[in-house]
Design a protein that fits this description.
- The chain is an alpha/beta fold and 208 residues long.
- The protein has one domain: Uracil-DNA Glycosylase, subunit E, CATH 3.40.470.
- The protein has eight helices and seven strands, in the order H-E-H-H-E-E-E-H-E-H-H-E-E-H-H.
- The strands form two sheets. A five-stranded mixed beta sheet has the order 2-1-5-7-6, with helices on both faces. Strands 3-4 form a two-stranded antiparallel ribbon.
- Helix 3 crosses helix 8.
- Bound molecules: iron/sulfur cluster (SF4).
- The site of iron/sulfur cluster (SF4) has 16 residues, from helix 4.
Amino acid sequence: KRDASEFVPGSLELPRLREASRGCRGCDLYQDATQTVFGEGPPEADVLILGEQPGDREDREGEPFVGPAGKLLDRALVEAGIDRERVYVTNAVKHFKFTRSERGKQRIHKKPSRGEIVACRPWLVAELKAVRPRLVILLGATAASSLMGPSFKVTEHRGTLIEAPEEFEGTPEQVLPAVHPSSVLRAPDRDAAYEALVADLKAAPRAL
Ligand code: SF4
């Protein structure tokens, strides 16, 4: 079955992985997106934050979490006592998936399929091996399903530290599910949703 594995080099050097990810053809999402958006952050980070996929802004700039959801996440991390400079941020799927609005001007985010999440997973596994974080913060259902499997429910576990699957051999030791910051931006009561995200993230320092 087609996935990213044939494009992932054996190297555990992040710059090598990032460079190789530019040529990934592991699923069809590379065709319409501008570029691969690989993870960013210090290679010795204790915390890896996993989102869903790059958005419109990330796709154009080539960096993860630089759009509105990323800005909101930055604020929430500060409030939760997590130093963004010591965090590695990446996405479960590394190309932007979208549909065009009727007039074709706007690119509207589309949720990645299970097949695309699984196809892109070898990049995430390589990042986990390279960074060796102690904690992974799972932002939203796509991130959670990539790491924990499709039946894992963020709503049931958000804000609680959970032991990571054995497959990862202790890096990470634990995962922390939280809602995705873009769901806060869409929430009818944005302030309450934001406070709930901060509350989810506040469990992180206990794992470090
Ligand atoms: Fe490769 Fe992932 Fe992009 Fe698909 S989404 S082409 S698997 S990097």
